Amino acid sequence: MNPLLSAQFRRQAPIFGSLVVLAVFLFLHAFSFSPLAGRYHRALSQAGSLGAILDPRGVRTPAMPPRVYTLLMDNSLPAAEADRKGTSGSLGAELVQSLSSVATQHGLELVIAEPGLLTQQETSVEARAHLRVRGSYAAFTGFLDNLARGGKLLRVERFNMEESSPGRCDIALYVARLVLKRSGARS
User: Fold this and answer.
1) What is the rounded average pLDDT for all residues in the chain?
2) What Å distances lie between residue 127 and 62, 67, 95, 96, CA to CA?
């Protein structure tokens, strides 16, 4: 090889190396960071439809944790759909159906399952249900544990336990579910 060409190449090698590193960084930015930034901005706009203030330019509070955001999105409907489901009674029926299935999974004998009152508010709809079940205390605590871990915004308003036979109880249970209304029609 020509010694003049190899000396000139050695002098220019850092420039070529920096151009290769620049090309690698541009490639990584275009194919990995840009789509992530786009998803982040879409998530911010969806959270804004729930009334959450997440714009990092105007607020000093940290962004909503992903688990909380998922919980809110899973328990919200567009306002028109929430009103329609509330007035038709399907929210109460869905609540009774889900509670009944969880109760039977835990070995509780379902005596009565009926939807209760529905409360429509400006930003939410609250459906209630009344259940009477029969079973063991252990089955009932498993039922309550399953409700707590179910990912729905449920509230046990009250319950009453009376022993019916040794090891078995008659349980009257009143449960409410909160469904948030989204301001936009996004899902």
Assistant:
1) 85
2) 32, 23, 7, 10
pTM over 0.70: no
Q: Which of 38, 64, 90 finishes a domain?
A: 64
Any domain includes 39: yes
Total domain count, the chain: 2
Question: Is pLDDT at 187 greater than 70 in this prediction?
Answer: no
138 pLDDT band (50/70/90 cuts)? Answer: very high
Residue type, 6: S
Instruction: Name which of 111, 161, 116, 117 is nearest 132 in CA terms.
Output: 111
Please report the pLDDT score of residue 72 as a whole number: 87
Residues 152 and 85 in one domain: yes
Containing domain of residue 15, as a range? Answer: 3-64
